[in-house]
Amino acid sequence: MITLRALTPCDAVAIRRIYSGASVTFTRGLPMTMEEATTYVTTTIIQARVSPRER
Questions:
Q1: How far is CA 21 from CA 12, 41, 46, in A?
Q2: What's the whole-model pTM score?
């Protein structure tokens, strides 16, 4: 079973790994840099605080 949890700043490394390699062929075209991954995670955390989802 998979348990979902909120993103944390430490997840930037995992996000970068997801958006690199073969997966970028269909998503971005270029591998994600560490700076982009950090920005992605930070933005996502801020947006989640602004408009939280109901669980």
A1: 16, 19, 27
A2: 0.72
